[in-house]
C-alpha cells in the first residue's frame, strides 16, 4: 500500500505539472493566434474568408464588365488613317484631308475636306467590312489603306506636298 500511495502522489504531481504546462501553452497559443483586433484564430479566419468571398464577387463583376468593354471596344474607332494634301495650286499648305475611321470589323467612315480660297467642302462616305459605299478619290483610298494597316490605336498620317509649292515654304502638319 505505501507503493500505491507514493505512485498516486507521483501521478498527482505529474498531472499538476502537466496541467500547468498545458495552461501555459494554451496562453502562448492564444497570444500567437490573436488578430490585431484581439479576435481568436477562428474569428480571424472567418473575417479573412468573408473578405475572400467579397473579392471573388468583385472579380466576377470586373470580368463581366471587361467582357462588355471588349464587345463595345470592337465597335469603337480604333484604326485611323489621315492623308493631308493640297488639291489646288492657289492655296498654301496641306489644308485638305481625307480621314478614315474604322472599327475592328473595318466598318466606319471616310471623311474628306477640300479646302480652297473661297470655300471648304466636306464629304462623308460609309465603309462596311473594309469596302466603301461609293467610289473613293486617290487620297481617300490612301487614307482607308492607312487605317486598315494601323494597329494598336495609332493614327497613320501622310501628308503630300502641293504640286507647285514654292521652295522654302513648308506644308502644315
Descriptive report:
The chain is of the alpha+beta class. Among the domains are: 37-75; 79-159, no CATH class. It contains three helices and six strands; from the N terminus they run ααβββββαβ. It has helices at residues 2-33, 41-75, 138-149, and strands at 79-85, 96-102, 108-115, 120-128, 131-132, 155-159. The protein has a six-stranded mixed β-sheet with strand order 5-4-3-2-1-6, with helices on one face. The protein is rod-shaped, with a radius of gyration of 39 Å. The chain starts with a helix and ends in a 14-residue tail after the last strand. 15% of the residues are buried.
Layout of SSEs?
Elements: H1 2-33, H2 41-75, E1 79-85, E2 96-102, E3 108-115, E4 120-128, E5 131-132, H3 138-149, E6 155-159
Parallel strand pairs: 1-6
Antiparallel strand pairs: 1-2, 2-3, 3-4, 4-5
Write a concise keyword list for the protein shown above.
single chain, about 170 residues, alpha+beta, 3 helices, about 45% helix
Brief write-up:
This protein is of the alpha+beta class and 173 residues long.
